[in-house]
Predict the 3D structure of the following.
Amino acid sequence: MSLNLVTVVGYHIKSLKHLIEHYKDIVDDINVVVYRNDINDTILDEVTDIIKPYGLEVFDTVVAPIFNWEVVTSLYNKTKRTKPDDWWIVSDSDELHVYHKPIREIINECEDNGWEFVTGGFLDRIGVDGTFPEINDDSDLWETFPLAGFFRYIVSKAMPNKTCVMKGKIDVTPGQHFALIDGQLTWRNFGWDHPLRSPTDKGFVQVHHFKWDSTVVERCKETSSIKEDYTYHWEYKQMYDYLVENNMIIDVKNKDFLIEKMSDNTYLDYPHWDFLTEKIIRI
């Protein structure tokens, strides 16, 4: 069974090269979709320069208002539907999945049991002492962002659930937080027991979120300034206000954030993952 990856890039492409490096050896095809607007009118050329050495071409492009996460989600769904019976990894360019077992084994288990999507949740990655490091082409993200925790939801109530791996015919909601099947949100109508969902007791994917780089403060400020529902500006405003109040760093001593220094990047490296899984799936 073919395994594809789709990512949509628009405003922030610092981690795109690192996404390709992370996934290129575990997928059969990588589909990069470019989301353009007046602010990033050079992004098509920039993305092309990044992906060309990997033998990749831009799969699709669209022009739409900046920070419109509904458009981003529609691009994910449109791309996946080109191969509705294949398996897909959906990953923003600043998200690196760490799986509970090899991804092909997860897919085989899903095929054997009739499951069609696999879920997970965010682990926020930050720099030493809660700082926001710069990402360069030669950065090792795991070393540059050695701390992992769960602060974004605590601060801004941004949804931490993610739909990570799925058949192409399974749509996702904005933010790729939930599966949308027959027009119904799976979590709202079935809890976490939807018959097409891989059970969480089989494993819950860690989505390591490298959003928190040197540009994140300005991005939070810009997103919060666009008062449209599709930007989720209120979440970004809460996050921005927190950063301003805390001297532009994350308080690593806040026990609610469950921040730990990572020694490696295996699934078992983060000590609170079982606890956090139970917390996330109830949000």
